[in-house]
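Worked example 3. Consider a protein that binds zinc ion.
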Amino acid sequence: MFATEFINFNISRAAPIRRTVEAIHGPKPPKAGVKSVEDSINEARLQCFLCKLTEKRVLLRPCNHLCFCEPCNDTFQKQIPLLCPICHMHVQSFEIVHF
Ligand SMILES: [Zn+2]
Ligand SMILES: [Zn+2]
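Given these inputs, the predicted complex is written out as structure tokens:
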């Protein structure tokens, strides 16, 4: 008799706490390992134009397009003429972006 009461007490105490956690952190995130389309697009946006492996780090000026990672930008800088691969504007300088 006493044991049953104890279990009921625990359940009634736990439920409101769980509800509070969901209110703070929002609904549970989708299962790990299942990528949404949005995630894939965001990743593609961040990937370097040349190697497609590393995050883009170098901003081209004056067009402000983010195109290459640092090692690939070293390769890109040797090209003549130096044109942005996105808008084909003449690149005058580079800026390393720190997230
Ligand atoms: Zn790269
Ligand atoms: Zn550009």
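Take a moment to read the result before moving on. DSSP finds three helices and three strands in the chain. Strands lie at 58-61, 65-68, 93-96.
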